[in-house]
Amino acid sequence: MLIRILQGTPVWVWALLALLVVVGLSHAKPRRMSARRVMIVPGVMLALSLAGVASTFGARPLALAAWVAGIALAITLGRDAVAPRGARWARETARFELPGSWLPMGLILGLFCIKYGVGVSLAMTPALAANTPFEVAIAFAYGAFSGLFAARAIALRRLVVRG
After folding, report:
1. Is the pTM of this model over 0.85?
2. Where would you tag: which of 8, 31, 82, 109 has the fewest CB atoms within 10 A of its CB?
3. CA 152 to each of CA 31, 45, 58, 135, 159: distance values in angstroms, whole numbers, following the listed order
4. pLDDT at position 28, please?
5. Low-confidence ranges of the chain (pLDDT < 50)
């Protein structure tokens, strides 16, 4: 059954996975980034997770509330846990000096796996889209994973403020 699922996966999904792996790999090595560029990945991940909620559950209030709750919890509890250790704001170049980290790769792949698993689950059992516990759990998970990216960006932003 697994082989059939993988074979039935559209080619664009594998292309997206390849792109996400490249983005994750770019975070694994030390680099310098502008404040604007640091915000791109969290913004994209928030947009993708919201799109995942909207495409699966529509604009149902419970799904949106679970998504927001996931983000809020991730930001509240995860800000210090996902803050890049050893990151520094270089005021003279207006850039972050970031150490390499595999954490972003893990978060990116985690969010991808959730989205992929949801797609497979719904293809096999479409009625899940109307299942309230499934709706809440998935929307919350989307929010939590993307919220960890936002928490990381907030932690970096604190370096600028401390400057």
Report:
1. yes
2. 8
3. 16, 12, 28, 26, 11
4. 94
5. none
How distant, in Å, are the alpha carbons of 9, 91, 94, 117, 146 from that of 38? 31, 15, 12, 28, 14
Q: Let me know: does 146 contact 71? Beta carbons within 8 Å.
A: yes
Q: Give me the amino acid identity at 108.
A: I
Domain locations in the chain as residue ranges: 2-162
Give residue 22's identity as a one-letter amino acid code.
V
Q: What are phi and psi of 94, to 5 degrees?
A: 55, 45
Backbone phi, then psi, for 98, in 5-degree steps? -110, 130
Q: What pLDDT is attached to residue 41? A: 83
Beta-bridge partner residues of 97? 32, 88
